[in-house]
């Protein structure tokens, strides 16, 4: 009888330990990136994410790569390269939104830009080592003078963006 009780107690303890260890693995700490992760799965969700992105960047001045030399002639401008169908750009736009109304920011849509001037955009991206979007940088006389490094996995914070804008 005592052996049965010991066995039951041991099994119960093992079960509790196993359950608590398993629960700790599921609860990974969230990193404060300012960018929330969201898996967009349905077409309706995708459309909502696109609409939210467009609303978040409302106020940027959209240009084509061909206009970049003229727009940045003799002055430094802030340029955002992104696209509405990019999940990372959609997440980034939530953090970027307050800066759009606060600063003059130009925008090149990385998909529409390809359709409107495919060779210009490809050449610009290649010449300036721009592999991924979103990308935020400063341009003067058509040349990048400063860029913000946006971590693909971690995103960026409002504080990091503010530091970039404060360097101006």
From TrEMBL:
The keyword Phosphoprotein does not apply. It holds the Pfam family DUF6568. Residues 43-70 form a coiled coil. Keywords: Coiled coil, Signal. This is Thiol reductase thioredoxin. InterPro entries: PedC-like, Thioredoxin-like_sf. SUPFAM superfamilies: Thioredoxin-like. Residues 1-19 form the signal peptide. The keyword Coiled coil applies.
